[in-house]
Design brief:
The chain has 459 residues and is of the alpha/beta class. The chain has one domain: TIM Barrel, CATH 3.20.20. The chain is 43% helix and 14% strand. Helix 1 runs antiparallel to helix 2 (23-51), helix 4 crosses helix 19 and helix 13 (336-350) runs antiparallel to helix 16. The longest helix is centred in the first third of the chain and has 29 residues, at 23-51. It starts with 9 loop residues before the first helix and ends in a 14-residue tail after the last helix. Bound molecules: flavin mononucleotide (FMN). Flavin mononucleotide (FMN) binds at residues 2-5, 86-89, 91, 111-112, 155, 183, 185-186, 227, 256, 293-296, 316-319, 321. It holds the Pfam family Dus. It comes from Acaromyces ingoldii.
């Protein structure tokens, strides 16, 4: 598995900008990131080595030889207008997705999961919580819950039509996800070495074969989409987008407005989206939903980017990584320390989120007293009924999180009683997520953009 952005992660930036920041904390954070990368790499290699000699059908040759018409999508997912949660390795685990939906995300992408890592997992459903877990050797590779089923897109890492076919057949067999997406943008070496991620940008024929395999594997009502980066020139980007659209496989296209060689700290290039818009116009009369990604840190900035570019759908990554309430449409971003992180850990406790992932995600959040993760953000709203967070509180929470060994320790560091939380029935735990989804569904039925939707509850 892969992760595109590490150096500019909000938690790290928050530390950099915080006068209390000490070199030890920054080093601890960097070590966590290194360890996470290493674990992901090992997981992919281990999964791949277990299955690489299996003789599977249809294989690449058979898939390429199949000239029967591709099944047509009947997906009714609304990609545009919309404000969506971007795929993020590790960060986009179930609690992040559910909290994003609660705060107003329209669709949520899973972390990228490599074809051979998901294929051959055991799929189990927990009777009490309803949690659906795809696991291998006791380790969750992907978890989801029926509450997000109409809104979750599973993102695949693949550079092999046959493995993509197997992985997508497997993950869609029980109707657990609404859509599947191909990652064509990750520039991390362990993704591109296998030809996956941004590697696919230089092998467009293979990229299109993988999309065709995904379309053949997924049931018709499951959408197929892909996420690309810009290529160095307008001509190259346009040729790629044209070729992808002409496969007739995709229900939506996301463009991360950076090139493969650009660093996350370099400003994105939203003005270059016009070259993609032109091709979408020519090829589909503007019908294909186009999603802009890059440097939208919160809902107001997403709206500004929509106005600037004319597209009506935006996907955000680092904003919600730091603070899932970045999706709130006009009420301002809420305190991580007092509101968002406690909500996150409550979901983690009730939905068996793995301790390593829980600690990692909490440590990546923007524990800041006065502003959100956006460089232009306004001051945080004080927690409802509580005084503004103090610096002292931030320091204590960070120290508590650093010392924690279990999800229960992490909960206590955030003022949540783990035993009490586990007694709460799952319907009650998920009530506000469900209500937020219902509100956004009814505003869509009323032909209203989910992005401009009315304010979500604060806490
Ligand atoms: C922690 C992290 C993990 C990411 N993992 C993925 C991934 O699994 N798949 C993917 O297509 N992009 C991944 N990305 C890239 C984001 O989806 C997004 O394209 C990029 O961060 C730019 O959006 P932003 O400016 O809103 O952060 C990741 C980014 C971050 C910060």
């Amino acid at each position: 598995m892969s992760a595109e952005v590490h150096s500019a992660a909000p938690a790290k930036r928050a530390l950099d900008e915080d006068p209390d920041h000490d070199a030890v904390a920054a080093e601890r954070h960097a070590a966590m990131k290194r360890q996470a990368n290493e674990e992901e790499k090992q997981m992919v290699e281990a999964s791949a080595s277990k299955v690489k000699h299996v003789d599977i059908h249809p294989n690449d040759e058979e898939l390429r030889a199949d000239t029967s018409p591709l099944p047509k999508s009947t997906s009714t997912l609304q990609f545009s207008p919309g404000l969506h949660l971007a795929p993020m390795v590790r960060i986009g685990s179930l609690p992040t997705r559910l909290l994003s939906l609660r705060y107003g995300a329209d669709l949520v992408w899973s972390p990228e999961i490599v074809d051979r890592a998901i294929f051959g997992c055991d799929r189990t459903v927990d009777e009490k919580s309803g949690l659906v877990a795809f696991s291998r050797e006791g380790k969750h590779i992907f978890t989801t819950h029926p509450v997000e089923r109409q809104r979750v897109i599973f993102q695949l890492g693949s550079a092999s039509p046959q493995w993509a076919y197997q992985a997508i057949s497997f993950v869609t067999a029980n109707d657990d996800v609404a859509g599947v997406d191909l990652n064509c943008g990750c520039p991390k070496p362990f993704s591109t070495i296998g030809g996956m991620g941004a590697g696919l940008l230089s092998t467009p024929d293979l990229l299109c074969d993988v999309l065709r395999a995904m379309r053949r594997a997924a049931p018709a009502h499951v959408s197929v989409s892909c996420k690309i980066r810009l290529l160095p020139t307008k001509e190259a980007t346009q040729a790629l987008v044209r070729q992808i659209i002409r496969t007739g496989t995709i229900d939506a296209l996301t463009v991360h407005c950076r090139t493969k060689d650009m660093r996350p700290r370099q400003p994105a290039l939203p003005h270059r989206l016009q070259e993609v818009i032109d091709v979408v116009q020519e090829e589909t009369a503007g019908e294909l939903p186009l999603i802009l990604n890059g440097d939208a840190w919160d809902a107001p900035e997403a709206r500004r980017l929509m106005k600037q570019t004319g597209v009506q759908a935006v996907m955000m990554a680092r904003g919600p990584e730091g603070n899932a309430s970045s999706f709130r449409s006009d009420g301002g971003v809420l305190s991580v320390a007092s509101v968002v992180a406690p909500q996150w850990v409550r979901l983690a406790l009730s939905l068996d989120n793995q301790p390593g992932n829980t600690k990692y995600c909490l440590n990546s959040m923007a524990f800041k007293a006065t502003s959100s993760v956006s460089p232009n953000a306004k001051p945080l709203q004080p927690p409802p009924g509580l005084p503004r967070d103090t610096k002292q509180k931030m320091v204590e929470i960070r120290q508590g999180l650093a010392k924690s060994k279990t999800v229960e320790d992490l909960a206590r560091a955030l003022g949540v009683d783990p035993d009490e939380q586990k007694k709460i029935p799952i319907d009650e735990v998920l009530r506000e997520v469900r209500e937020a989804i219902e509100r956004s569904s009814s505003s869509k039925e009323g032909n209203d953009s989910g992005t401009e939707m009315s304010e979500k509850p604060a806490a």
